[in-house]
Specification:
By secondary structure, the protein is an alpha/beta fold. Helix content is about 25%, strand content about 25%.
């Protein structure tokens, strides 16, 4: 039978079923009523379903001639699901796990990763990743054949390749290929880079083969680096379970970063549970909803991850919660559809995806700007920086020739730069790459531990009149002629440490020095110390205040201004033709033992919001979705309104 494929689907409300089933389960699919299941998710408003064709146990859920079907599955479960989804207008994507295939790894030991220490099993053993697969072995062709088998025989809209992780492999096949390429297979860093290239090559080759079958097929690879698959993926899916992975600081970083890479859709996958493998977990409604709303406010589309019970039991409580959340969110779809984030500041972080995902410095910078209600992106060299008014280089961004060229262009256009710590130094860390523009000389590392600072009269608004702690390491600066020193370092009596007799832990400030803590030269401000590291360590309000004062000295007419809005609240701006949407958040995660949790929104009152007009004349302001008009006035280039009450989330439309 020839499969007729439809045009490329654009996911709006997605569900992802993480369906990994142990081989010993005796009744896979026994209770599965495919019509009841698809009717239910259709009623939830779901238009895109990602479901396993083959899971990380290496077991298939369809009638495969190539792989291994689950031994207790008596029929073609995926096939029945494909037919029902096609009939009911639900786009279905077939899931394959690339990095993990336990049963196939057991049957073909030569297909598994041989790690650098000579082991093929990882420690600790109680993890799905205990046995992983080599992308250059016979497994590569086997996996590609299974993907083509499904793409060519079932009505599906897409393929998802999961766990495309660069497991460093030194099996005979990989070693032979590295030797032939002149690579040092004894160097773990070299092997890791080779494994990364192998994963990317597999992703691209799978996409090529799938596109031969159906050019409009959606392709999604869950690979650590988004930038390497810009020409391969049809959309990106950011996975964040804040109760177990990365906490509530992870999604903000990723949301502000991934959207800058291309115009392709970005899905925001949270989970209905606390962690993967949690079959009995059901997060509070507000926890799930707040994550999805955060994504929508930043241009991402919702995706809820869950587990499919092996028997196919219809989990009514889970679907009730999903339906309630999706139905409520969908009342605002008119203002979410094709809305783009409107931003004017960039945090420049041109580092690897592993650094981006795990950087404490970046999380602190994103948090600080969010607390200040600024509209910003996180950018790398893969993005265009030309639209931003302010570039921020946090703590440790060394300047390459590409960065130097971009920064010169930015400054020539009269725009501003704020850098901290060693940011701005050349790659050798010997001199500021743009010393004339920065207006300072690099004089080496600063020895003060702890370091304090005092601020001069121009930028001390809101700061206490006392030496303040920096809570981080830094460098020494010499201000060149014409550069203003806006804050000075304060020397402690002694540095912290053990002198052989005493533990020197009480080290108060002794005297103000002539050493700069903050300089401004034209449109460039530089902090001597790593203030974002300090903010991550201590959440020092004073560090946020001095940064805010510098930002407003350069850029006072920010896109949004708010009054009577708590620091924990967040404000994001998205745009559609002829209107701007302001998303007002008031959720506070509470750490309960080991787990951060949101259970309810916080009610706030009488919040003033002013949005810059940007040559637009807004004729009405209202709350969505009910379109209840709000009084407004135009003041000095802004449109001002007041929101009397908001709990958790409100969407204010300026039209």
């Amino acid at each position: 039978m020839k499969i007729i494929y439809k045009m490329m689907h654009h996911p709006k409300y997605s569900l992802f079923y993480d369906n990994h089933t142990m081989k010993a389960v005796p009744d896979v699919g026994a209770n599965f009523d495919v019509d009841a299941f698809t009717d239910r998710i259709k009623h939830c408003g779901v238009d895109y379903l990602i479901f396993h064709a083959r899971c990380n146990q290496g077991l298939a859920y369809y009638d495969t001639k190539i792989g291994t079907k689950h031994p207790s599955l008596a029929y073609d479960l995926f096939g029945k699901l494909s037919e029902a989804c096609d009939k009911k207008g639900i786009a279905l994507a077939a899931y394959f796990n690339a990095g993990i295939s336990s049963e196939e790894g057991l049957r073909h030991r030569d297909w598994t990763t041989l790690y650098f220490d000579g082991r093929s099993l990882r420690e600790p053993r109680l993890t799905p990743h205990v046995r992983t697969m080599c992308y250059n072995s016979g497994y590569r062709d086997h996996l590609m054949a299974m993907v083509k088998e499904v793409a060519g025989n079932y009505r599906i809209a897409g393929v998802m390749i999961d766990c495309l992780i660069n497991y460093p492999c030194v099996c005979p096949v990989c070693v032979k290929e590295m030797k032939e390429s002149g690579m040092d297979w004894t160097d773990l860093n070299v092997v890791t880079r080779f494994s990364e290239a192998s994963a990317v090559r597999l992703a691209k080759d799978i996409a090529t083969e799938v596109k031969k079958i159906a050019p409009d097929m959606l392709i999604s690879n869950n690979y650590p680096s988004y930038e390497e698959l810009l020409d391969t993926n049809s959309y990106f899916d950011v996975v964040c379970l804040p109760a177990s992975e990365g906490n509530y600081d992870f999604l903000p970083v990723m949301a502000h970063y991934v959207r800058t890479l291309s115009d392709m859709p970005v899905l925001n996958m949270t989970g209905r549970f606390y962690e993967w493998g949690d079959f009995g977990g059901l997060l509070p409604e507000e926890a799930i909803k707040s994550e999805l709303l955060y994504g929508l406010a930043n241009g991402m589309r919702p995706n809820i991850g869950g587990h499919f019970h092996p028997r196919g039991d219809l989990e009514v409580a889970v679907l009730d919660r999903i339906e309630k959340i999706y139905k409520e969110i969908q009342t605002n779809e008119e203002w979410y559809d094709n809305a783009k984030a409107v931003t004017e500041i960039a945090v420049v972080y041109p580092k690897s995806i592993h650094n981006i995902k795990g950087s404490e410095v970046l999380r602190a910078a994103v948090r600080m700007l969010s607390e200040l209600k600024q509209q910003f992106d996180v950018v790398t060299l893969a993005s265009d920086w030309s639209k931003y008014e302010v570039l921020i280089f946090p703590d440790s961004i060394l300047f390459t020739e590409d960065i130097i060229k971009r920064v010169k262009t930015h400054l020539d256009e009269g725009k501003a730069v704020i850098s901290t710590g060693i940011s701005g130094l050349n790659k050798e860390q010997t001199v500021f790459a743009l010393e004339r523009e920065w207006g300072v000389k690099y004089m080496g590392r600063n020895e003060y531990d702890p370091a304090y600072f005092v601020v001069g009269d121009r930028l001390n608004q809101g700061l206490p009149e006392m030496p303040l702690s920096l809570y981080s390491s830094g460098i020494e600066l010499h201000a060149l002629e014409g550069t203003r020193v806006e804050a000075n370092l304060v020397k402690p009596y002694q540095n912290r440490g053990w002198d052989g007799t005493y533990a020197i832990v009480y080290t108060p400030p002794r005297e103000i020095t002539s050493k700069p803590a903050l300089t401004i030269n034209g449109k460039v401000a530089h902090f001597s110390h790593e203030i974002f590291s300090g903010y991550f360590e201590k959440a020092s309000v004073e560090l946020r205040r001095i940064f805010s004062n510098v930002l407003h000295a350069f850029f006072s007419e920010t896109m949004v201004k708010c009054e009577n809005l708590p620091i924990f609240a967040r404000v994001f701006v998205t745009g559609q033709p002829n209107r701007r949407m302001v998303h007002l958040f008031s959720y506070v995660p509470e750490t309960r033992g080991k787990t951060p949790m949101i259970e309810e929104g916080v009610e706030i009152h009488h919040v003033t919001i002013m949005i810059r007009n940007d040559n637009k004349t807004f004729s009405k302001v209202y709350l969505a979705p009910e379109k209840r008009n709000l009084p407004f006035e135009r003041i000095q280039g802004y449109t001002k309104t007041i929101v009397d009450r908001s709990k958790g989330y409100s969407l204010i439309v300026f039209e």
